[in-house]
Amino acid sequence: MSSKLSDYEYDLPRELIAQRPAPQRGDARMMVLHRGTQKIEHRAFRDLGRFLRSGDLLVLNDTRVLPARRFSADGTIEFLFLERLGPRRWKCLVNPGRKMRVGATARIDNVPLRVEQITPEGERVVLLHKNLDVYAGGSMPLPPYIRRPTDEEDAARYQTVFAREAGAVAAPTAGLHFTPEVLSEIPHSFVTLHVGPGTFLPVRSENIGEHRMHSERFYIPAAAAYKINKASRIIAVGTTTVRTLESARRAIGRIVPQEGATELFIHPPYCFQVVDVLLTNFHLPRSSLVMLVSAFAGHGFLLRAYQEAIRERYRFYSYGDCMLIL
Description:
The protein starts with 28 loop residues before the first strand and ends with a strand. 38% of the residues are buried. The protein is globular and about 60 Å long. The protein has helices at residues 152-157, 180-184, 222-230, 239-252, 288-297, 299-311, and strands spanning 29-34, 39-44, 56-61, 63-65, 69-71, 78-84, 89-95, 105-108, 111-118, 124-128, 165-168, 188-193, 216-220, 233-237, 258-262, 277-281, 322-325. A nine-stranded mixed beta sheet has the order 2-1-17-16-14-3-12-13-15, covered by helices on one side. By secondary structure, the protein is an alpha/beta fold.
């Protein structure tokens, strides 16, 4: 079992971090990992259907990313609005934090705000002096490894084509590859998990078992529960879908319509109860996401695949290529 944080480290050349999406959805490369034979194939995302069987069900996360990134009127402070706590009170991430201690003030769209509290996780609770639609002038909250300003292309491409339920501050990025045409050819269903800021946070405990996940809300409708229980294989699109399905099974014992919250941290030697196949992007070293995928693929096999992806110049992270783990 790989329980040390250092077991999930790898060196990635910066130029392999995708700064923009592929020219068209569906253009990504797809590395295929066969767990049974430990074989690796290099394919294209458009080949996905060739690896599916009769009775398979694709399950996707239909959360919608909110344009939650705002800047102070003078442009010096970035706010990521995470959660509305009251009529004019919000929980935020701010950058740089040193400028926004308790009592510090700023303006957004000429509306003053003041920091009331700093949470143990470093988030700020701010009070707006009057009502403000924080999303009206906001932009997509691209992850910090995309080192460029957000633009109009991101408003469309950092959102899945099937996004419906608003509430996320990060995209379920494995779903970004899909087009309506691809989905029309594959039996599928949707669940919802609103991705929170914890998706960007590194694991800091050397003993990974000490790490605690942020709570994230999820929802499984009746139609999805019925299809999931009927399917012969479940193909989860993305780690957020995995956490939704595995959390639902742990909480109830089977997949039933439900709404709840999960803090499930999946890492080796986790035993999967629902998911049979995983489609996912390449993830940050030392992240809870790479630990989840390691639990699914096998730690040694996954690290070997990552090294091959680097040699083959795959594009990494949110706007990058994907892998299918069979």
